[in-house]
UniProtKB/TrEMBL annotation:
<keyword id="KW-0732">Signal</keyword>
<dbReference type="Pfam" id="PF18962">
    <property type="entry name" value="Por_Secre_tail"/>
</dbReference>
<dbReference type="InterPro" id="IPR026444">
    <property type="entry name" value="Secre_tail"/>
</dbReference>
<feature type="domain" description="Secretion system C-terminal sorting">
    <location>
        <begin position="33"/>
        <end position="99"/>
    </location>
</feature>
<protein>
    <submittedName>
        <fullName>Por secretion system C-terminal sorting domain-containing protein</fullName>
    </submittedName>
</protein>
<feature type="signal peptide">
    <location>
        <begin position="1"/>
        <end position="20"/>
    </location>
</feature>
Length: 107
């Protein structure tokens, strides 16, 4: 009986994880950042560019170090040569007020 309960618990837990993962994949934003890590520049690519407003880059302590207003392309390029090495946060601001966050490593 103990083994049956353990098996059922494992099965339910696995099933719940799989459904949570598929919901996460469906909600996942179609935005990519490359190359990462980057040393000279990086590009943010949008699959649904019509909803984008602004893209900003923040230091790890939250200071905005650069931003660009979306201009209608499916890609936005950033020159980061002047930034210090380290980790940065790239935040995409959408027209509906939502945001999406990506990490960037500057090497």
């Amino acid at each position: 009986m103990k083994h049956v309960i353990l098996f059922l618990s494992f099965f339910i837990l696995t099933l719940g994880t799989a459904s949570a993962q598929s919901r996460f994949d469906q909600d996942k934003a179609p935005i990519s950042l490359y190359p990462n890590p980057a040393s000279v520049s990086f590009t943010v690519k949008f699959e649904s560019p019509s909803k984008i407003n602004t893209v900003a880059v923040y230091s790890i302590i939250g200071n905005e170090v650069m931003s660009k207003k979306y201009e209608g392309n499916s890609k936005l390029n950033f020159n980061i040569q002047s930034l210090k090495k380290g980790k940065y946060i790239v935040r995409v601001f959408n027209n509906d007020g939502s945001t999406e966050t990506l990490s960037l490593i500057k090497n």
